[in-house]
Amino acid sequence: MKSLLTIALLIISNAFMTLAWYGHLKFSELKWFNKLGLISIVLISWGIALFEYAFQVPANKLGFKGNGGPFTLIQLKVIQEVVTLIVFAIFTLIVFKTETFRLNHLISFLFLILAVYFMFKK
């Protein structure tokens, strides 16, 4: 149960972080957003990223073996990176219609899945 909750929190966390890091590239299509300076955009992104931390920190605390969770620190990091790339890929395909998903992307995801497999192999 802790492992599923940890992964769910990481997915939510990464959704907010992806929006904070890359959302402004799409928001620039809005007229009012184009009037904002870089400082304003950074502050908006920080506001969104605050929600990322609200989910990321509990995910790590709950999931870390040292706190009674199921994952080592290295395993948590690998899971987090895979979740980040999957969330980013989905976000990109949904929000940015000009991006395409190619065979080389699929192959790279396969290698990420293999990385997770080897991370958990004893």
Structure, described:
It is a single chain. Helix content is 80%, strand content 0%. With 122 residues, the protein is mainly alpha-helical. The protein has one domain (2-120). Keywords: Membrane, Transmembrane, Transmembrane helix. The chain crosses the membrane at residues 36-55, 76-96, 102-120. This is DMT family protein.
SSE order, one letter for each helix or strand: HHHHH
- Which strand-content bin applies to the residues? under 5%
Radius of gyration: 17 Å
| Dominant shape | flat
Average pLDDT for all residues: 89
Q: Uncertain segments of ≥5 residues (pLDDT<50)?
A: none
- Distance linking N and C termini: 21 Å
Number of beta strands:
0
Kindly state the percentage of residues in helix: over 70%
Structural domain count: 1
Describe the biggest sheet?
Answer: none
Query: What is the helix tally?
Result: 5
- Category by helix and strand content: mainly alpha
Keywords: Membrane, Transmembrane, Transmembrane helix
InterPro entries: DUF486
Protein name: DMT family protein
Organism: Euzebyella marina
